[in-house]
Amino acid sequence: MSRNYLLAVLLTVALACCMVCGCTSDATPADGQTSVGADTTPVAGETESAESLIVYCGAGLREPMDEIAQVYEEKTSTEIKYTYSGSAQLLSQIELLQKGDCYMPGAKSYIDSADEKGFINSSEKTIYHVLALAVAPGNPKNITTLADLTNEGVRVAIGEPTGPAVGKSAKKMLESAGYWEDIQDNIVVQSGTVNELMVYMNMGQADAAIIWEDLLDNSDLVKVNIPIDEGFIKVIPIGTLSFSENPDDAQAFAEFVSSDDGKAIFVKHGFESYPCAKYENA
C-alpha cells in the first residue's frame, strides 16, 4: 500500500468524525427549556384552567366569599379577583366594562336586571339575605319593632334606596309595612354599602340600622329580628357573565359557590343556605 493512499484514507476518516461532531454537539436542550422548533401543541382533549377569574360581589358578602376564594384557589389553582361594592354600582361597572366572569349581588333583582340586559349566562341559587334591625348594646332606645323606628328622637341609618341591595330592600320593606313616610324625619344617614352602616352604628352615629342579619353574628351590636310576614327575605344567586373569556371556569366557580361546600362556608358566617324550611314560604 502506497504512502499517499494511506494518507488519503486517514484524512477521510478525520473529516467524517468532524462532520458527526458538528451535527450533534448542540442537539440536546438544557434542562427546563424547550428546543427551538419543538412541537408544543397541546394534546387533543387537554384543557387549561383560567389563571384568574373576575367576580363582582356585593359588599355584604365579603367575609364568606373571601374564604370561598381561598378554598377554591387551593383546589384549582385559579385566583379569584373580587370587586366589592353596592349591587347597583357593580351592575353599572359590568354594563360599562363588559368584562368579567361572575356577578353575585345582594338581591336577585339585580341578577334579573343584568339578565334583561343580556349579561347573564346562567345563575345558581345559593343563600338567603334576611333584613334585621341593629341597635346599640343594651338597646337604650328600647327598639323592638319596625314601628319603633318612627318614634321621636330615634336616629335611623339605612342604605341608599337606589343603591345597594340593603337600601333598596329596606325601602321596599318599610313601604309594605306602611312606615316609609313616617320614618323620613328620623333617617340620619343613607350609606352606599352595608358595611358603612356597621361603621355608623359602631361610632354611635345612629340608634338603629336596617341591615343584613348575618353581619351581626360577630358584632357587639344587638340584633332585633323582624317577623317573617313583615320582613324582607330573598334568595341570593350567583350568575355567570355572558362576556366571560373563560365561561367553563366561570361556571365551575359558580357551581362551587352554590355547592354544599360553598354553602357550608356561608352558614359559618351566619347565613341561611338555600333551600331552607324556615323560609320556604317567604
User: Unreliable segments (pLDDT under 50, ≥5 consecutive)?
Assistant: 1-47
Oligomeric assembly: single chain
Shape: elongated
For the terminal residues, how far apart are their CA atoms?
Answer: 110 Å
Largest beta-sheet details: 10 strands, mixed
Per CATH, the superfamily of the largest domain is: Periplasmic binding protein-like II
What is the mean predicted local confidence, pLDDT? 86
Number of helical runs?
Answer: 8
Query: What is the CATH level 1 assignment of the largest domain?
Result: Alpha Beta
Count the domains: 2
Order of helices and strands: HEHEHEHEEHEHEEEHHE
> In which range does the helix fraction lie?
25-40%
Q: Which architecture of the largest domain does the CATH hierarchy give at level 2? A: 3-Layer(aba) Sandwich
In what range is the share of β-strand residues? 15-25%
Radius of gyration: 31 Å
Counted beta strands: 10
What's the CATH topology label of the largest domain?
D-Maltodextrin-Binding Protein, domain 2
Structural class computed from helices and strand pairing: alpha/beta
